[in-house]
């Protein structure tokens, strides 16, 4: 019997990779999509199946995590074995502009989904998309024991969601796992996150569409990994004997400035000529230094990231150059091929 998975946030970076992975393992996948006035399904177009055809394994449903009734109905109707809650207002800077909305989606949305599962009385394994942002001001390296000290409305809402996930596990015996994931990126990363802003910006500079890029804090350090490797671990967490929480990262950290230097030099550009500061990209409070200690995941899940900072930058620059019709240096794509990681052909049409 094939398993059934239910994914909120399926149209996002992680949701699209996870759906692809689960379909490749024979799952029936149900994804929640929001009603929007323009299409928001670019990242899953390549796996879309016409619902009128026979043997459809990917099924999309309108819903929203702020509408608890839609969640209850969908959980009852789809009867999932596994639920992955990836839906979020995921932009930290934007959470300062939309603090209550962010709390509703990231915080209350989580407890609404947990309640829908609990009340359905179905046997469900649940994954919560928690974040390294929850560590905030706590010094590195950060692991499962590190104290949360959120520095944004986004992170505070994620802390709430993390703790209700743990609470429902302890109070009701639910199989709930919280994955505390450090930053993970890909050619499908939203263009307003800093990695993609850099790599897509480089492609546009090379294509002579723009001649300057504006950034905020270049000193912040992040532990950046490759999204498809992280989404596979979400699944692994739910296959374990017992539910647990895990920190996932590469154990390597670099500043935003390092990222810019690495990407521009790979593309053969002098970064100082193109980078300018804009206050609007500064945050009222920013997380200075994230560096994971993923020992637990290494031991219990066999976690060993193949894609590290330099390869990640090359992969993203390559695909962004392709997306504007330029021939890339190709080292990133070559790395994916050599390591058997090129399992999707959809990166040239990223979201
Ligand atoms: P993303 O690309 O921004 O995707 C977010 C997804 O959530 C999209 O599918 C979005 O739908 C959906 N969504 C937003 N509000 C919703 C609502 N009210 N109801 C239903 N769906 C809603 O984010 P991501 O990078 O894939 O991240 C996935 C999850 O992991 C998020 O919860 C994020 O906070 C968390 N996380 C991410 C990272 C990272 O580095 N990527 C690290 C740690 C944790 P639309 O397409 O319609 O906007
Ligand atoms: N987005 C953005 N845009 N960030 C900038 C810019 C800019 O122009 N200039 C500097 N930065 C700095 C930010 O201040 C931050 O310190 C760092 O670059 C990374 O910013 P983002 O790429 O927006 O990611 P994030 O770390 O804030 O949040 C991401 O990772 C979290 C996990 O730690 C998101 O994916 C969150 O959803 C996720 O939980």
What is the tally of beta strands? 13
User: Do you know the CATH topology of the largest domain?
Assistant: Rossmann fold
Q: Spans of 5+ residues with little confidence (pLDDT < 50)?
A: none
Question: Helical residue percent?
Answer: 25-40%
Which of globular, elongated, flat, extended, rod-shaped describes the shape? globular
What is the annotated CATH architecture of the largest domain? Answer: 3-Layer(aba) Sandwich
Could you give a short account of the major beta sheet?
Answer: 7 strands, parallel
The run of helices and strands is EHEEHEHHEHEEHEEEHEEHEHHH
Question: Strands of the biggest beta sheet: in what spatial order?
Answer: 3-2-1-4-5-6-11
Mean pLDDT: 96
**What hetero molecules are in the model?**
NADP nicotinamide-adenine-dinucleotide phosphate, guanosine-5'-diphosphate-alpha-D-mannose
Radius of gyration: 20 Å
| Intertermini distance | 33 Å
Overall number of structural domains: 2
Structural class: alpha/beta
Given this structure, which CATH class of the largest domain is correct? Alpha Beta
SS strand fraction: 5-15%
Put simply, the count of helices is 11
Name of the CATH superfamily of the largest domain: NAD(P)-binding Rossmann-like Domain
């Amino acid at each position: 019997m094939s398993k059934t998975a239910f994914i909120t946030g399926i149209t996002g970076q992680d949701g699209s990779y996870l759906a692809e992975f689960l379909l490749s393992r024979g799952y029936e996948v149900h994804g929640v999509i929001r009603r929007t006035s323009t299409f928001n399904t670019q990242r899953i177009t390549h796996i879309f199946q016409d619902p009128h055809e026979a043997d459809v394994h990917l099924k999309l449903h309108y819903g929203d995590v702020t509408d608890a009734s839609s969640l209850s109905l969908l959980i009852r109707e789809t009867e999932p074995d596994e639920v992955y809650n990836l839906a979020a207002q995921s932009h930290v800077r934007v959470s300062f502009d939309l603090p209550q909305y962010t709390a509703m989606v990231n915080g209350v949305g989580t407890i609404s989904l947990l309640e829908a599962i609990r009340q359905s009385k179905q046997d469900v394994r649940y994954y919560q998309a928690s974040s390294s942002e929850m560590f905030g001001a706590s010094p590195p390296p950060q692991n499962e024991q590190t104290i949360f000290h959120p520095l944004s409305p986004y992170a505070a809402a994620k802390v709430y969601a993390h703790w209700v996930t743990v609470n429902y596990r302890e109070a009701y015996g639910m199989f709930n796992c919280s994955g505390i994931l450090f930053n993970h990126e890909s050619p499908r990363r939203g263009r307003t996150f800093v990695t993609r802003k850099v790599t897509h910006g480089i492609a546009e500079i090379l294509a002579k569409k723009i001649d300057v890029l504006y950034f905020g804090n270049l000193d912040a350090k992040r532990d950046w990994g490759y999204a498809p490797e992280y989404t596979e671990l979400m699944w692994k967490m739910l296959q374990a004997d017992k539910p647990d929480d895990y920190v996932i990262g590469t154990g390597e950290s670099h500043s935003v400035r390092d990222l810019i230097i690495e990407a521009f030099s790979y593309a053969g550009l002098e970064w100082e000529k193109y980078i300018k500061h804009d206050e609007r990209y500064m945050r009222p409070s920013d997380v200075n230094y994230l560096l994971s200690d993923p020992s637990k995941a290494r031991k219990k899940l066999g976690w060993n990231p193949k894609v590290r900072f330099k390869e990640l930058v090359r992969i993203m620059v390559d695909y962004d150059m392709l997306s504007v019709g330029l021939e890339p240096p190709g080292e990133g794509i070559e790395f994916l091929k050599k390591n058997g990681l090129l399992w999707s052909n959809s990166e040239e049409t990223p979201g």
